[in-house]
């Protein structure tokens, strides 16, 4: 039985990932860390910016300039604002409305980001105050901490939670938390190759269209 559906945010509720890939690849390359959008997408989707920059600095022996994160953040935010309500993943608002279980968000993004962009697409009021950020736990994804934190806050046992994730770190963390996971592939760099990666990480199934999500949740609830 499923009592709680936990949604990741970026790449599941809002289609921000492509803006992140573009800004990071361009600005990292300009700073001396040559990297493509595809590599950023493949390696770091679902990982916090802090952890990504730390890993790349170590690999390349480069210290990124002071204020680098703020520069990238400004570029991403400008692109997201320009998208307006179209920043929402297609069909997600209707899918959420058709799910009868309790719902919350568990995201690697910071609280200000979550409120700003979920608000932009009309979803903040749907989830708040049940929006949980990785800043609230010691370890972010792929550790299970954030998912377990969300379940505790919502008063639901992990085995009665269903997680909707688009990243390997997210699927890994939710699976480690003892939760079932559906992998969403529509916003991936290459949806066809991303699905098998999510299954390998522990997703019980994948899907690429939010219109089918309510049926998938009902199916999980009966299994």
From TrEMBL:
GO molecular function: catalytic activity; metal ion binding
SUPFAM superfamilies found in the cross-reference section: HAD-like
Cofactor annotation: Mg(2+)
Keyword Metal-binding recorded: yes
InterPro entries in the cross-refs: Beta-PGM-like (IPR051600), HAD-like_sf (IPR036412), HAD-SF_hydro_IA (IPR006439), HAD_sf (IPR023214), PGP-like_dom2 (IPR023198)
UniProt-listed Gene3D superfamilies: HAD superfamily/HAD-like, Putative phosphatase, domain 2
Magnesium in keyword set: yes
Keywords attached to this entry: Magnesium, Metal-binding
Top-level lineage group: Bacteria
PANTHER family, alphabetized: 6-PHOSPHOGLUCONATE PHOSPHATASE
Family the UniProt entry places it in: Belongs to the HAD-like hydrolase superfamily. CbbY/CbbZ/Gph/YieH family.
Protein name per its UniProtKB record: Haloacid dehalogenase
Organism, as annotated: Aliidongia dinghuensis
Organism lineage string: Bacteria, Pseudomonadati, Pseudomonadota, Alphaproteobacteria, Rhodospirillales
């Amino acid at each position: 039985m499923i009592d709680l559906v936990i949604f990741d945010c970026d790449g599941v509720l809002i289609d921000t990932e492509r803006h992140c890939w573009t800004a990071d690849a361009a600005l990292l390359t300009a700073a001396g860390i040559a990297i493509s959008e595809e590599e950023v997408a493949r390696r770091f989707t679902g990982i916090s910016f802090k952890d990504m920059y730390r890993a790349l600095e170590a690999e390349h022996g480069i210290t990124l300039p002071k204020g680098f994160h703020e520069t990238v953040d400004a570029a991403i935010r400008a692109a997201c604002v320009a998208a307006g309500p179209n920043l929402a993943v297609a069909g997600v608002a209707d899918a959420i409305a058709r799910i009868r279980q309790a719902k919350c968000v568990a995201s690697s993004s910071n609280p200000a980001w979550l409120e700003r962009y979920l608000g932009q697409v009309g979803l903040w009021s749907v989830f708040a105050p049940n929006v949980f950020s990785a800043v609230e736990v010691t370890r972010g994804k792929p550790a299970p901490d954030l998912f377990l934190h969300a379940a505790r806050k919502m008063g639901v046992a992990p085995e009665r939670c269903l997680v909707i994730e688009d990243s390997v770190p997210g699927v890994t963390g939710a699976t480690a938390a003892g939760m079932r996971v559906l992998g969403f592939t529509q916003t991936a760099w290459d949806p066809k190759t991303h699905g098998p990666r999510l299954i390998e990480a522990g997703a019980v199934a994948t899907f690429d269209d939010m219109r089918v999500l309510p049926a998938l949740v009902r199916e999980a609830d009966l299994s």
